[in-house]
Amino acid sequence: MHNKKLKLLIGNGLVLVILALIIGGLSYRMSHRQDSWHTLQQRKTVVIGIDDTYVPMGFRDKKGHLVGYDVELARATFERMGLKPKFQTIDWSMNQTELATGHIDVIWNGYTINAERKQKVAFSNPYHSDRLVLLTKQSAPIRQASDMKNKNLAVQSGSSGFDSLNAQPQYLKKYLNRKVSQYDTYDKAINDLQVGRVDAVLIDRDYANYYMTHEQLKTPLRMVQTAFPKDEYGVGFRKEDKVLRERVNRQLMELQQDGTESKLGQKYFGTAN
Questions:
Q1: Of 190, 204, 216, which Cα lies nearest the Cα of 268?
Q2: What are residue 38's phi and psi, to 5 degrees?
Q3: 242: Cβ–Cβ under 8 A, 6 or more apart, which residues?
Q4: What DSSP state is assigned to residue 107?
Q5: Which residues contact 131 (CB under 8 A, 6 or more apart)?
Q6: In this structure, are strands 84-89 and 181-183 parallel, antiparallel, or unpaired?
Q7: Facing residues of 128 across strands?
Q8: Residue 171 — very low, low, confident or very high, per pLDDT cuts 50/70/90?
Q9: I need a labelling partner for 217 at 20 to 30 A (CA). Which of 31, 43, 87, 223 fits?
């Protein structure tokens, strides 16, 4: 019995050692990834993760073509770098996972820079700013955040609005006494707003403004300002991709200096960026 127990303990110990080596090896490879710039140059393509319903940054026009401020800015940036941009539609709530696993090379779609995201993602320099507003029916008795008591709020899962709502409860969440409804895209939330399933959507001002200007709405909508701090957008990279980040920053600066960003701002926001 003693020998059998000893053999069993040794066998279990070997299994644990092997598992530890496997897990340790995976962890080492994850933490010692190489900069992908050389790989991107070889394949001459960069994969960009987007939510293709996010107007006016990246969305489908009436013919199904992918357009938007970020789409055009990304194309101009990577074409100058000798890379062909390939836009990959992703579940926005999984964007960091898609980046970490290598399914995409960058996140570029109205991606707000914040402290929580900086723990997992390296950001470019900010290239655009925006603010969070409440989008509600024109007839709704909502004039400020405190009017959201006993009202139903909608947010997009994984959005900066969702993050800000929870991280900065003093601006809106403290007034809410009903469960917040989460949607995978803003357009679904706005549809439910128009039919009365929710009372307001916490959304980026650029999105709300473009939507109200260009869509044929069933019900008139309006924006309500909030006290949330200004959002700044950046391109998201894996932390080891330092060369790619540096080159994108350089191109963004040139596109700002040569007036490209300003022209795109006029086209999609109605004002220079």
A1: 204
A2: -60, -40
A3: 35, 122
A4: E
A5: 204, 205, 225, 226, 228, 230, 231
A6: unpaired
A7: 233
A8: very high
A9: 87
Measured at the CA of 181, the angle between CA 175 and CA 183, to 5 degrees, comes to 135
The pTM for the full model equals 0.80
pLDDT tens digits, one per residue of 108-161:
999 999 999 999 999 999 999 999 999 999 999 999 999 999 999 999 999 989
Distance CA 57, CA 231 (A): 14
Number of other residues whose CB lies within 10 A of the CB of residue 247: 18
CA torsion sign for 77, 161, 228, 205 is positive
Residues 235, 47: contact at Cβ < 8 Å? no
Separation between Cα atoms, residue 89 and residue 19, nearest integer Å: 36
- Given a contact cutoff of 8 angstroms between Cβ atoms, the answer to whether 223 and 205 are in contact is yes
Residue spans of alpha helices (H) in the chain:
2-31, 37-43, 69-80, 95-100, 115-118, 160-167, 186-194, 205-214, 242-257, 260-269
Kindly give, in sequence order, each residue whose CB lies less than 8 Å from that of residue 101, ignoring residues fewer than 6 positions away. Answer: none
Of 118, 101, 110, the C-alpha closest to 47 is: 101
Contact call for residues 149 and 178 (beta carbons, < 8 A) = no
Q: pLDDT band at 271, cuts 50/70/90?
A: confident
158: how many CB neighbours lie within 10 A of its CB?
Answer: 17
Q: Cis peptide leading into 85, omega within 30 of 0?
A: no
Contacts of residue 8, Cβ cutoff 8 Å, sequence gap at least 6: none
